[in-house]
Amino acid sequence: MVQSWLVVGLGNPGPRYEATRHNVGQMVVDELARRRSEVLKSATKANARVAETWLRPGADKLVLAKSNSFMNTSGGPVSALAAYYGIAPERVVVVHDELDIPFDTIKLKVGGGHGGHNGVRDIAKALGTADFPRVRVGIGRPVGRQDPADWVLDPFGAAERPNLPILISDAADAVEELIGDGLLAAQQRHHAPRD
Question: What is the mean pLDDT of the chain?
Answer without folding.
Answer: 93
